[in-house]
Amino acid sequence: MSQGLRWGIVSTAKIAADWVSSIRLHYPEAKVVAISSRSLESAQAFAKENNIAKAYGSHAELFADPDVDAVYVSTLNPFHKDPVVAALRAGKHVLCEKPFCMNVTEVEQMIQVAREEKKFLMEAMWTRYFPVFIKMREVITSGRIGKVLSLRGQFGFEVVGRDASRLTQLDLGGGALMDIGIYLLSFSQAVFGSYPKNVRAVAKFEGDVDWHTTVLLGYESGQAVLDFGFDSAFYETQVFIVGEKGSISVCHPFFAPQKIIVKSVDGEEVLNDPVAPNNVNWNFSESSSLYHEVKYMQEAIAAGKLESEHLSLDQSLQILTLTDEIRKQIGLVYPWDERV
C-alpha cells in the first residue's frame, strides 16, 4: 500500500496545488487520482492544471470513487469536519489540514468516526514530520538538555498582500490564533507532551478577529510563552527551548524547520536538513516539504496503524481543547459555536 495509495483531494485551495507539486517532486509513490470541488468547472480547471485524471463537482462523488483510497481535505478551516466525517464513513483514510477543526466538539466527532470505521485519520500539521523536528524531539527525550524549563516562540507577518479574507473574516475562521498560533500551540504540545496546568491569554482585536495574541502556558516542568500576530513583518518566527542542561534553537522558519542548534555541557551541535532547490512556483513558502506528512502517512497505513505516532488523535484533541480555552479567555467567538 505504501507504494500505491491513491489520493483524492477535497477543495481546489492554493495549498492543495502545492501539496500535489510537492508529492510529484519528492514522493511519486503517492498517486493523486481525483479532485473535487463545489464547482465542477473549478475542479476541472484544477485537474487540467495539475494533471489529475478525475474531476468531480461534489465531494460525495469523490468519496464514492472506488479508485480513491485516501483523501486530503484542504478546505478552509471551518469546513473540515463534514468532509472528514463523510470520507471516513465512505471507507477512506483521511489527512486533514491544520487546524484539525474549529473546536473540541468537532474533533471529538471526527475521532469517534475514525475509530468506528477503523480508518487512518491524521491532522496535517506538517511541522511534526520534518526530519529536523523529529531529531529535535529525539534530543529532548534522550535527556541531553535535561528537563525542559522554558519555551519561547514567535510567529507573525503583515496581512498586506496576502489572502486577507480567510485571515480576517470571522465566518471563514479568521484570526491569528487559528491560522498561525496553532503552529506554536502544537509545537509546545510536542515539547512538553501534555496539556498545560495553567493557561493565560490576552489579545488585540481588529474587527471581529484576534490580530495579535500572547499566550502563557504553565506545565508541570516549565513554561511556554507564545506570541503571534498579523501586525508586523518583524516577528522572529523561531522557537527557543531551555532545559536544565542545555538549549535548542529552532531556526527560522520553525514551522518548516530545517536547522536546529543544540547547546549542552557536551558542546554545540548544528543539525541541518535543508530543502533541495527546485524551480516550482509555490503558493506558500517551504511547501516543497509537504510530502513528508504524506510519506509518513502512507508508511503508517502500510504498517497497519490507524493514527500518527508523531501527532496522535488524542494530542490533536488536546490542542483543540487549548484553542477553545484561549478563545474563551480572549473573547473570540465564531458563528458556528452556538451550533455545537
Characterization of the model:
- By secondary structure, the protein is an alpha/beta fold.
- The protein has two domains: 6-125, Rossmann fold, CATH 3.40.50; 131-272 and 310-339, 2-Layer Sandwich (Dihydrodipicolinate Reductase, domain 2).
- The chain is built from ten helices and 14 strands.
- The strands form two sheets. It has an eight-stranded mixed beta sheet, covered by helices on one side. The chain has a six-stranded parallel beta sheet with strand order 3-2-1-4-5-6, sandwiched between helices.
- The longest helix is centred in the C-terminal third of the chain and has 18 residues, at 313-330.
Rough outline: globular
The appropriate CATH architecture of the largest domain is 2-Layer Sandwich
What is the total number of structural domains?
2
Gyration radius, in Å: 20 Å
Order of helices and strands: EHEHEHEHEHEHEHHEEEEEEEHH
Q: How is the biggest beta sheet arranged?
A: 8 strands, mixed
Q: Which segments are poorly predicted (pLDDT under 50) over 5 or more consecutive residues?
A: none
Helix content: 25-40%
Walk across the major sheet and give the strand order.
8-9-10-7-11-12-13-14
End-to-end distance: 37 Å
> Under CATH, the topology of the largest domain is which?
Dihydrodipicolinate Reductase, domain 2
Care to give the gist of this entry?
This protein has ten helices and 14 strands. It is an alpha/beta fold and 340 residues long. The chain folds into two domains: 6-125, Rossmann fold; 131-272 and 310-339, 2-Layer Sandwich (Dihydrodipicolinate Reductase, domain 2), CATH 3.30.360.10.
